[in-house]
Structures are given as C-alpha cells and as structure tokens.
User: Fold this.
Amino acid sequence: MERERHEPTFGKQDMAEVNFRARPRDYPRTRDEPRIPWVAIALGVAAALAIAMGLIEWNARRQAAAMTAELMRPMTKSEQAAFDREMSKLDEQLTRDLEAVMPRSVRLSAPAERYFPLPLRPGERCMSGHRLKRIEGGWQDVPDQPC
Assistant:
C-alpha cells in the first residue's frame, strides 16, 4: 500500500492569534540591547594616566639633563672675569662688615700666645690630648697640664 506524500503548507497567518510571552525582569539581556563597557573604559583611563605620567617624567628628566649640561659648561673668559670681579666686591664688603661688627678691644688685643706643652715626665702618658699620671692601681688625669 502506497501512500502519497503531502508536504505541509502554511497559509497566511493571522497575527491576531499570535501571543508573545512576557519577559521576566531577571531574564538575561539580549545582544540587541546596548551595554556600557565599564572594563574597557577603566582600562582606557588607566592607560591614559600611565602615558601622561610617563610623559611628565620624561620631560622632567630631559629638563634636568639640560640644566646639568648648562651648569657643567666651563666659563668663558668674559664670564670668568665678571665672576672674579663680583667675588672681589663680595670679599671687600665682607671685610668692611667684619670690621664694623668686631669690637674694638678684640681688634687691638695682642695675638694669642702659642702654647707649648711640657714634656712628659717619667710615669706620665698622653692619651687624646689628656696627660695621665701613673698611680697605684691605674692612671690619674692631670687636668691642668694638657699634652
């Protein structure tokens, strides 16, 4: 017995009969809805900050190297002459200021006499500028006679 095969056919649908299910609130979003890429934005901001900080550091190092090169440059003859003139003016000014400030008694006093320590006698020793005298059981400091 042979049956005849019939392909199903669909006629024009009446859309009034079609019902769609309501989507629940916790249903995952579909790809059609726009999403804000927070991770990409955060990585972009971090990369921009790192680049800006790197450029600032590079510029600071470049300027420091230029200043160092300028300071290490030897003076020309005209600059050296101007520097020497300025230093001599400052020395003269310093001398005048010292003479004005220093009391007259100090200027007129005789220079301090040079001290010559007495030689060490038997039983004495000099340590760190202090004269020590040998006593029974050790050493005694002699404060009035430095060595």
